[in-house]
Design goal:
This protein is of the alpha+beta class and 138 residues long. The chain has 1 helix and 9 strands, in the order αβββββββββ. Strands 2, 3, 5, 6 and 7 form a 5-stranded antiparallel sheet that branches. It has a 4-stranded mixed sheet with strand order 4-1-8-9, with no helix packed on it.
Protein backbone atom coordinates (compact mmCIF):
# COMPACT_ATOMS: atom_id res chain seq x y z
CA UNK A 1 0.00 0.00 0.00
CA UNK A 2 1.39 3.37 -1.00
CA UNK A 3 1.11 6.42 1.22
CA UNK A 4 -1.34 9.11 0.16
CA UNK A 5 0.14 12.11 -1.57
CA UNK A 6 0.35 15.23 0.54
CA UNK A 7 -2.95 17.20 0.53
CA UNK A 8 -5.11 14.26 -0.70
CA UNK A 9 -6.68 13.83 2.73
CA UNK A 10 -7.65 17.52 2.81
CA UNK A 11 -9.31 17.18 -0.59
CA UNK A 12 -11.35 14.17 0.58
CA UNK A 13 -12.29 16.05 3.73
CA UNK A 14 -13.49 19.06 1.68
CA UNK A 15 -15.64 16.81 -0.53
CA UNK A 16 -17.15 15.11 2.51
CA UNK A 17 -17.80 18.45 4.25
CA UNK A 18 -19.45 19.97 1.15
CA UNK A 19 -21.61 16.85 0.71
CA UNK A 20 -22.75 17.04 4.35
CA UNK A 21 -23.43 20.78 3.98
CA UNK A 22 -25.61 20.17 0.86
CA UNK A 23 -27.55 17.38 2.63
CA UNK A 24 -28.22 19.68 5.58
CA UNK A 25 -29.32 22.50 3.25
CA UNK A 26 -31.73 20.24 1.36
CA UNK A 27 -33.12 18.85 4.60
CA UNK A 28 -33.68 22.40 5.86
CA UNK A 29 -35.52 23.36 2.67
CA UNK A 30 -37.71 20.27 2.82
CA UNK A 31 -38.73 20.93 6.42
CA UNK A 32 -39.63 24.57 5.72
CA UNK A 33 -42.56 23.73 3.41
CA UNK A 34 -45.37 24.27 5.89
CA UNK A 35 -48.18 23.52 3.41
CA UNK A 36 -46.85 20.24 2.03
CA UNK A 37 -49.80 18.01 1.04
CA UNK A 38 -47.86 14.95 2.24
CA UNK A 39 -47.57 16.00 5.86
CA UNK A 40 -49.56 14.06 8.39
CA UNK A 41 -52.80 15.75 9.42
CA UNK A 42 -53.10 18.21 6.53
CA UNK A 43 -56.38 16.78 5.24
CA UNK A 44 -59.51 18.54 6.44
CA UNK A 45 -61.67 16.63 8.92
CA UNK A 46 -64.64 16.72 6.55
CA UNK A 47 -65.57 16.29 2.91
CA UNK A 48 -67.43 18.86 0.88
CA UNK A 49 -70.01 18.82 -1.89
CA UNK A 50 -70.21 21.69 -4.34
CA UNK A 51 -73.49 21.73 -6.26
CA UNK A 52 -73.91 23.78 -9.42
CA UNK A 53 -77.62 23.89 -10.33
CA UNK A 54 -78.54 24.52 -13.98
CA UNK A 55 -81.89 22.77 -13.58
CA UNK A 56 -85.14 24.74 -13.80
CA UNK A 57 -86.10 24.22 -10.13
CA UNK A 58 -84.52 24.84 -6.75
CA UNK A 59 -83.02 21.65 -5.29
CA UNK A 60 -82.90 20.18 -1.79
CA UNK A 61 -79.62 18.27 -1.46
CA UNK A 62 -79.17 15.22 0.81
CA UNK A 63 -76.54 12.55 1.38
CA UNK A 64 -77.59 8.89 1.89
CA UNK A 65 -75.74 5.95 3.41
CA UNK A 66 -77.85 2.84 3.78
CA UNK A 67 -80.95 4.00 5.65
CA UNK A 68 -79.26 7.13 7.05
CA UNK A 69 -80.30 10.38 5.32
CA UNK A 70 -78.70 13.74 6.09
CA UNK A 71 -80.18 16.88 4.55
CA UNK A 72 -77.35 19.21 3.52
CA UNK A 73 -79.36 22.21 2.34
CA UNK A 74 -80.84 23.89 -0.69
CA UNK A 75 -79.39 25.34 -3.90
CA UNK A 76 -81.41 27.71 -6.05
CA UNK A 77 -81.70 27.67 -9.83
CA UNK A 78 -78.59 28.82 -11.73
CA UNK A 79 -76.57 29.05 -8.54
CA UNK A 80 -73.66 27.28 -6.88
CA UNK A 81 -73.57 26.18 -3.23
CA UNK A 82 -70.93 24.33 -1.21
CA UNK A 83 -71.98 22.01 1.62
CA UNK A 84 -69.92 20.37 4.34
CA UNK A 85 -70.63 16.64 4.44
CA UNK A 86 -70.87 15.52 8.06
CA UNK A 87 -69.05 12.35 9.08
CA UNK A 88 -71.25 9.36 8.35
CA UNK A 89 -70.99 6.08 10.20
CA UNK A 90 -68.92 3.47 8.46
CA UNK A 91 -65.59 5.29 8.43
CA UNK A 92 -63.34 5.91 5.46
CA UNK A 93 -64.57 4.59 2.15
CA UNK A 94 -68.23 4.45 3.21
CA UNK A 95 -70.46 4.15 0.14
CA UNK A 96 -72.87 7.06 -0.18
CA UNK A 97 -75.00 8.72 -2.82
CA UNK A 98 -76.45 12.19 -3.09
CA UNK A 99 -79.99 13.19 -3.99
CA UNK A 100 -81.24 16.41 -5.52
CA UNK A 101 -84.94 16.80 -4.83
CA UNK A 102 -86.54 19.47 -7.03
CA UNK A 103 -88.85 21.72 -4.99
CA UNK A 104 -92.43 21.09 -6.18
CA UNK A 105 -91.62 17.87 -8.06
CA UNK A 106 -92.27 14.24 -7.15
CA UNK A 107 -89.06 12.38 -8.03
CA UNK A 108 -85.61 13.20 -6.64
CA UNK A 109 -82.54 12.73 -8.83
CA UNK A 110 -79.96 10.30 -7.43
CA UNK A 111 -76.20 10.45 -8.03
CA UNK A 112 -74.03 7.40 -8.63
CA UNK A 113 -72.67 5.59 -5.56
CA UNK A 114 -69.32 7.02 -4.39
CA UNK A 115 -66.82 6.16 -1.64
CA UNK A 116 -66.77 8.97 0.93
CA UNK A 117 -63.25 9.75 2.17
CA UNK A 118 -62.03 12.43 4.53
CA UNK A 119 -60.84 15.51 2.65
CA UNK A 120 -62.52 14.66 -0.66
CA UNK A 121 -64.25 17.43 -2.58
CA UNK A 122 -67.21 16.42 -4.73
CA UNK A 123 -68.46 18.67 -7.53
CA UNK A 124 -71.98 17.84 -8.71
CA UNK A 125 -73.21 19.72 -11.76
CA UNK A 126 -76.98 19.41 -12.21
CA UNK A 127 -77.69 19.93 -15.90
CA UNK A 128 -80.79 21.38 -17.56
CA UNK A 129 -81.57 17.82 -18.65
CA UNK A 130 -81.08 16.22 -15.23
CA UNK A 131 -80.02 12.83 -16.64
CA UNK A 132 -76.93 14.57 -18.13
CA UNK A 133 -75.67 15.67 -14.69
CA UNK A 134 -72.11 14.90 -13.63
CA UNK A 135 -70.42 14.10 -10.32
CA UNK A 136 -66.64 14.55 -10.02
CA UNK A 137 -64.39 13.72 -7.06
CA UNK A 138 -61.40 16.06 -6.59
Amino acid sequence: MQPEPRGAGASSFRRLASCLWMCAAFAGCASSTAQSPFRKGTLPDHSSLEVENHFWADMTISVHRGTQVIRLGQVTTNNRQTFVIPTVSGGAGASVYFTADPVGAREPYRSPLVALNRGDRYVWTLAVYIENSTLVVR
